[in-house]
Write a structure and sequence with these properties.
The protein is of the alpha/beta class. The protein has a domain of 172 residues: Rossmann fold, CATH 3.40.50. Helix content is 39%, strand content 24%. It contains nine helices and ten strands. The radius of gyration is 18 Å and the shape is globular. The chain binds adenosine-5'-diphosphate (ADP) and magnesium ion (MG). Adenosine-5'-diphosphate binds next to strand 2 and helix 1. Magnesium ion binds next to helix 1. It is found in: Cell membrane.
C-alpha cells in the first residue's frame, strides 16, 4: 500500500510558554478528505499553519509525500507549492485582476510562460464558476466569488494536498454553499484535503474522517456519521450540543 500523503508525528508546538499543539499524530492518505473541528483556540489553525510551515514546530516531524518539511530556502518554496492553502480571509492581491491573481504563482514559482499560465488559470476559474470575472479586480466580486478565486489560485500551483482553514466563516450565509459546492467537487475529483470547518453538511457529504481537537490535542477521530451521531468524549459531546443549538 502507498504511504500516506501527509504524516504528522508526535508534533509539539509552543508559542513561548504556551503549548498550542500537544502530541499531534495525524496521517492523511492520498485522496482522503479530513475535516478538523473543535472549539476556538484548540489549535486547528496552528495545525494547518505548521503543515505548510507558515509556523515552525517545537519538536516532532511532518512529512508530505515522504519528504520531511524543509526549514527554509528554495526547498521550502517548492514544498509550499505542493500544499495549497485557503484562508478564512481570501487574501487576494487587491491591485491585481482575478486572472493575474491566479497566474502569479505559476509564472513565478512553476516557471510557466504567461500564455500557458493564463490558459490554465482560465480553466480553473471556469471550474470554480468565475471564468467570466477574469478581468475584474477582487473588490468587484462578492465574498463567495473571491473565495472561489482563492481556491483556483491555490489549485493553479498543482498542489498535492489542499488545506482549508474555515473557508466559509467570513461569508454571508447565501454564499457559503457556492464555496462548499466547489470543495465537494474537488473532494469527488480525488483531491487530498484537510478542512477546518464547522459545516456539518460538508463533513457528511465529503469527509472520510472527522478529527476533533480541543486544548491543542486530537481528542477523537471517527467517520462523520459516527462522530456526529455518537461522539465519545465529553468535550466533543459538549461542543456538538452547542453547535447544533446555535
Ligand atoms: N502567534 C501566536 N502567538 C501566541 N499564541 C498563539 C499564536 N497563534 C495562536 N496562538 C494561540 O494558540 C492557541 C491555538 O490557536 P489557533 O490554532 O488559532 O486555534 P483555532 O484555530 O482552533 O481557533 C490559542 O490559544 C491562540 O491564542
Ligand atoms: Mg482558527
Amino acid at each position: 500500500m502507498a504511504e500516506p500523503l501527509v504524516v504528522v508525528k508526535d508534533v509539539q508546538k509552543h508559542y513561548g510558554d504556551f503549548q498550542a499543539l500537544k502530541d499531534i499524530d495525524l496521517t492523511v492518505d492520498r485522496g482522503e478528505v479530513v475535516v478538523v473541528i473543535g472549539p476556538s483556540g484548540s489549535g486547528k489553525s496552528t495545525l494547518c499553519r505548521t503543515i505548510n510551515r507558515l509556523e515552525t514546530i517545537t519538536s516532532g516531524t511532518i512529512t508530505i509525500d515522504g519528504k520531511e518539511l524543509p526549514k527554509e530556502g528554495k526547498a521550502l518554496a517548492n514544498l509550499r507549492a505542493e500544499v495549497g492553502m485557503v484562508f478564512q480571509s481570501f487574501n487576494l492581491f487587491s491591485h491585481l485582476t482575478i486572472l493575474e491573481n491566479v497566474t502569479l504563482g505559476p509564472i513565478r514559482v512553476r516557471g510557466l510562460k504567461k500564455a500557458e499560465a493564463e490558459k490554465e488559470a482560465r480553466e480553473l476559474l471556469d471550474r470554480v464558476g468565475v471564468g467570466h470575472q477574469a478581468s475584474k479586480l477582487p473588490a468587484q466580486l462578492s465574498g463567495g466569488q473571491q473565495q472561489r478565486v482563492a481556491i483556483a489560485r491555490a489549485l493553479a500551483m498543482r498542489p498535492k494536498v489542499m488545506l482549508f482553514d474555515e473557508p466559509t466563516s467570513a461569508l454571508d450565509p447565501e454564499m457559503i454553499n457556492e464555496v462548499l459546492d466547489v470543495m465537494v467537487g474537488l473532494a469527488h475529483d480525488g483531491m487530498t484535503m484537510i478542512v477546518v470547518t464547522h459545516e456539518m453538511g460538508f463533513a457528511r457529504k465529503a469527509a472520510n474522517r472527522v478529527v476533533f481537537m480541543a486544548d491543542g490535542q486530537i481528542v477523537e477521530q471517527a467517520t462523520p456519521e459516527e462522530f456526529f451521531t455518537r461522539p465519545k468524549s465529553a468535550r466533543a459531546k459538549d461542543f456538538l450540543s452547542k453547535l447544533i443549538t446555535h
